[in-house]
Description:
single chain; about 375 residues; six-stranded mixed β-sheet; five-stranded mixed β-sheet; 13 helices; about 30% strand; globular
Amino acid sequence: MELELRAFGPLMPLLRPPLHRVCALGRPPVRALMNLGELVSALNDFASPALAESWDNVGLLVEPSPPHTVNTLFLTNDLTEEVMEEAVQKKADLVLSYHPPIFAPLKRVTWKTWKERLVIRALENRIGIYSPHTAYDAIPHGVNNWLTKGLGTCTSVPLHPSTAPSSPAEGTHRVEFCADAEHLDAVLSKIKDIPEISCLTTLPVRVEGEEQTRVSLNCSQKALLEVVALLSQNSLLYHKTQILLLQKPLLPHTGMGRLCTLSEPISLSDAVERIKGHLRLPHVRVAVGAGRTLESPVKKVALCAGSGSSVLKGTEADLYLTGEMSHHDVLDAVANGISVILCEHSNTERGFLSELRDALTIHLQNKINIIVSEKDRDPLQVA
């Protein structure tokens, strides 16, 4: 037996597309400063940090002393020292860096390492730092969705769908059983002593002509073991027990990676040219799948911005598209007849910033100035 849970109102901000605003008489609104807290709340509404991978470090990473107002939001893919100097020169109040410049914990903040210097420069110039990273990978209007646009007309679904970070039901499992009056009070008394039990309800029922009580409760994985151990002490209760897994609902069009089905197949060489054009790159790296050629048809493309090995691995497709993969993962793909296009890590992400600028301008109702870094670039180039 399965229990289906549906997403409710609290989940809607996770999926909310950028808001649209119509200005009276066609005039743009007058820009006003935004409080940092208000802006961070709006950015979290655009892409909830709860959608980021568990290993990631997202959200507000550096906060100047309050009160702090933001007139200029500065977008970059990587926050290097050169980019930070640009942000200072352009009088940015908040840097939105797609990649988190603080990932591994800092044990000290000195002038010795470049990441520590970023924090010092930010605080000295009263610049906050915010990073969305994999939250932007997961959202329907995010980085991976932008990357699919380079393939042409296609339909796409997440390779690893996101589940709602919270759900209407508490606990991981629901336990239901029937008990007669002789055993009910003793069982309920012991169950109430078990931690992490919630939603305990009782309902009179008639089972095989006998008056009984149906008990229903939600519990955690840990509490489930104790509940089962308790009920197993009475064979009549144990054999009438049902255990249901409470699964969080999937969020539509949300998750890591994308599997794209092209409306019309194209050759691998055409796919290469389309991606180069979309990413504005003179060169990409290509591995041709076993038994394939540059003229072989491509219908299904699995893609993941950045480093996509773990997301793409095991997916059936004609082509893998990502920034970087390990040598052995490329060999595995090729051996399985899957061609691979590698564009270098941040080249598969950076072009999204212009689209993000336009989307955030609408989402933030044109209240602040939003600019994209001109110094941000991939560290690798073809020599």
